[in-house]
Amino acid sequence: MPGVIWLSHSLVVLLPVALLGVVLLGATMLFWWQAPAWSKIPRAQKRREEALRRMAALAERLRQQEPELDPKPILELPLEKLVQKLLADELSLESVLCSYLEEAMKVHQEVNCLTDFLDECEEQLQALKKLKKSERGLLYGVPISLKDVYDCMGHDSTCGLAQFLEKPAAKDGVIVKVLKAQGAIPFVKTNISQTLLSFDCSNPIYGQTLNPQNLKKTSGGSSGGEGALLAKGGSILGMGTDTGGSIRIPASFCGACGIRVTGYRLSNSGVASAVKGRKAVVTVAGPLAWDVESLALCLRALLSEHMHRLDPTVPFLPFREEVYSSNRPLRIGYYESDGFTQPSPSMARAVKLTSRLLRDAGHQVIPFSVPRTEYAFFHLYTGSLLADGGASLLEKLKGDIVDPSMKNTVTSLRLPNSLKRFLAWIWKYFEPRASQSLERLCGVGTPKKLWEQHTAVEEYQQEFIAKWRSLDLDVLLSPALDPAFYVGYPAKVQASSFYLGLYNLLNFPAGVVPVTTVTPQDEKELAFYRGYYRDHVDKSFQEAVRGSVGLPVAVQCIALPWEEELCLRFMKEVETLVKSKMEPK
Q: What is its EC number (predicted)?
């Protein structure tokens, strides 16, 4: 009988919702035919095709200058070695740019990761050649890829939205200016998820980006184009942004390294966003690369007085070399589960492996538990991301095609608040997480309620720091989110990304380092995965990570706010220990 009662409730609730969905879908489709998307998207797709043809033409011109060029040795160089050779004139700027242009086009053909070619890279290369050796920056001659959202003069920053098309940036953003001043050569822009609020990588303008390790899987998002391009060797250094794991998830899914910095340590001026003005959960910039040393080199270049002069809201805090290069033993907290989403077998094993290696290397490793995870996710994180009930987000989607990765969220946001609350009341008996999600999608409400929300976030941050301090921790080790999900599944299991989103809420620097790959034993153990709630989200998570043998698995390294150098030092330690374990004796 309970099953019949549950089914009858479901039919009563879901039938009107289904009918409402049909009406909404019909209205959406009718509007679509009259929408800006109808004309703008095909034009944008044509512009991309033309840009990629110009990219191929430049590669061909550069190839003609060095017909005997073998790109393989160049593409195998780590960033630090590449810069050394460029500064010493052991490699020409043309040979390096040509190598990465050719490789990026090959990767794009396989995974669909590029959105634009930055033609001005050729002019910039010529300008760099005129510099005296003493004028060359820390990233002299390095081709660098940029997430779609970074403003480059004359190019769109779309956020995957039709509304942002045909509005080219009037000037380079601050980070782009600093990178160029340090000698980097931005040469492509990369794909993102629509609105940047999904950890898939798909939008109606440029389509789906795939994971180069397994083409049935997503590259992650929202910086998924960066993750895919880097993992396959089409870029050596890229810039992403991170609101809830948007750097760390693609890096983790694709086998790269990435770090989100403390909010406001890097400039956000000239970085597009679908929803601006969020204070409790801040979108931040950060690099992705093949290794930790490359991330450190990028931050050395960015954390300059130049950035502070261009954007005085960014504090002048130069990179602290003494912290990064220290070798003192660390006191490290760790946890294998956040108590909210049961980790996959490979996620838990990665933390066990890493904590054991750290302990054997002489570090103190202490168990840690995350306080009130469910409360933090539903009441603080979701409530802060969509404090206005999604009104700003829906405004940006007017006249647009809603991507499949965003359809569930958008459909829920469009429901009247009274219906959301009614459904939440019904679902709390058999889908408690869905119930709480719908309740929070109603928005925070009045300015007073918004102030109370911000206060609650600050109180939780202080609670978390107090627990950290009580254990006298230097850093914290946690699971990342692994392995890569099948395309389409991130929309079904958004809550699982809170392993990473927690540190956006707390505004802590956090980075990911690959430490292992999925084993056949992990796959066998996944068959017994049930989750903590045993609801449709847990079931979808199990399905999402199946068939992943051989895919990369990372761990997450976390430090307190403004301690990026310590976070990188910890990441470097993990990377070094893992590599030494893998080397033959």
A: 3.5.1.99
CA distances from 166 to 31, 41, 155, 208 (A): 20, 10, 8, 21
User: What does the DSSP 8-state code read for residue 380?
Assistant: I
Confidence at residue 445, expressed as pLDDT on a 0 to 100 scale: 66
**Angle CA(91)–CA(97)–CA(102) in degrees, nearest 5?**
120
Classify residue 150 by its DSSP letter.
B
- Rounded Cα distance between 48 and 207, Å, is 12
- State yes or no: is 478 an active-site residue: no
Pairing of strands 207-208, 331-334: unpaired
Are the CB atoms for 346 and 480 separated by under 8 Å? no
Nearest C-alpha neighbor of 514 from the set 581, 562, 561: 581
Say if residues 335 and 367 touch (Cβ distance below 8 Å). Answer: yes
267 tagged catalytic: no
Q: How many CA atoms lie within 13 A of 390 on its CB side?
A: 24
Task: Give the active site residue among 95, 198, 222, 304.
Answer: 222
CA nearest neighbour of 225 among 112, 369, 391: 112
DSSP 367-378: E---TTHHHIII
Q: Scan for tokens 């068939």, then name that residue.
A: 547
Using alpha carbons, select from 358, 315, 378, 306 the residue that is nearest to residue 476.
358
Measuring CA to CA, which residue among 386, 341, 371, 265 is closest to residue 544?
Answer: 341
Cβ(143)–Cβ(97) below 8 Å? yes
Give 384-431 pLDDT, tens digit per residue: 888 888 899 999 999 999 999 999 999 999 999 888 888 888 888 778
Distance CA 25, CA 29 (A): 6
Marked catalytic residue, from 95, 246, 267, 355: 246
- DSSP readout, 381-429? IIHHHTTTTTHHHHHHTTTSPPPHHHHHHHHHHHS-HHHHHHHHHHHTT
Burial of 214 (0-12, 13-18, 19+ CB in 10 A): middle
What is the Cα–Cα distance from 503 to 457, expressed in whole angstroms? 12
* Global confidence as pTM: 0.93
Residues of the chain where predicted confidence (pLDDT) is lower than 50: 1-34, 585
DSSP secondary structure letter of residue 379: I
Q: Which of 147, 180, 217, 572 is labelled catalytic?
A: 147
355 is catalytic: no
Instruction: From 140, 226, 182, 194, select the one nearest 394 (Cα to Cα).
Output: 194
- Quick: pLDDT tens for 494-539: 999 999 999 999 999 999 999 999 999 999 999 999 999 999 899 9
What is the full DSSP assignment across 456-509? HHHHHHHHHHHHHHHTT-SEEEEE---SPPBTT-GGG-GGGGHHHHHHHHTT--
- Is there a contact between 249 and 500 (Cβ–Cβ < 8 Å)? yes
